[in-house]
Amino acid sequence: MLTGKQKRFLRSEAHHLNPIFQVGKGGVNENMINQLSDALEARELFKVSVLQNCEEDKNTVAKEIVEGTGAELVQIIGNTIVLYKESKENKQIRLPN
């Protein structure tokens, strides 16, 4: 689990990022979870945008993604979900203690 300090750090790191995934009408599916897992391994931190036409609530979408990928939910701001998962091969972000 992330501490408050670590979440604040990750929020500041994610601030300038653009969402690289969009969740739309189809909601979250297994294919998307696989792609998100690969992207988390490569990048560790990114944003997912929940589109207007998504039939699920953004909190539900975030929960499904977190459960599917094992990522940490950093923040939900507006319709954007910020996710973090420490990379096994590609560690780039050093979290404060």
UniProtKB/TrEMBL annotation:
<dbReference type="InterPro" id="IPR051925">
    <property type="entry name" value="RNA-binding_domain"/>
</dbReference>
<keyword id="KW-0694">RNA-binding</keyword>
<dbReference type="InterPro" id="IPR035920">
    <property type="entry name" value="YhbY-like_sf"/>
</dbReference>
<feature type="domain" description="CRM">
    <location>
        <begin position="1"/>
        <end position="96"/>
    </location>
</feature>
<protein>
    <submittedName>
        <fullName>Ribosome assembly RNA-binding protein YhbY</fullName>
    </submittedName>
</protein>
<dbReference type="InterPro" id="IPR001890">
    <property type="entry name" value="RNA-binding_CRM"/>
</dbReference>
<dbReference type="InterPro" id="IPR017924">
    <property type="entry name" value="RNA-binding_YhbY"/>
</dbReference>
<dbReference type="Pfam" id="PF01985">
    <property type="entry name" value="CRS1_YhbY"/>
</dbReference>
